[in-house]
Amino acid sequence: MQRLKSLRTWMGALTAIALLAAWPAVVGADEETVIPPEMNWTATPPASHYVDGGQLAQFLLKKGLITPQELALLERGEFSQVKASTQPCAPSRTVSR
Question: Can you give the C-alpha Rg of the chain in angstroms?
Fold first, then answer.
């Protein structure tokens, strides 16, 4: 008898979850929303994706990710000669608890 009560409780909980999950479809969440004209809303244009290569190279140099020699090669346009560093990255900080 106890198992039957427990099963009814679980089935009731699962039914409630299923009904709540279906609620947005029932109340019309799939309808298209229209912005009223009095809001004077305009779509935001996409952000510019321009990156200044010189500033990026200076930033990488400042952070120690490239050497001054590699920066000079990049500035001269000889980037094909720049090889990936064989040195390991700086060790990550460990968090002690």
Answer: 30
Neighbours of 10 (CB within 10 A): 10
46/37 Cα distance (integer angstroms): 22
The answer, as to whether pTM is greater than 0.85, is no
Instruction: Give the span between the Cα atoms of 21 and 9, in whole angstroms.
Output: 18
Domain positions in the chain: 2-29
Residues 9-27 have pLDDT tens digits of 888 888 888 887 877 665 6
C-alpha separations of 37 from 30, 33, 34 in Å:
21, 13, 9
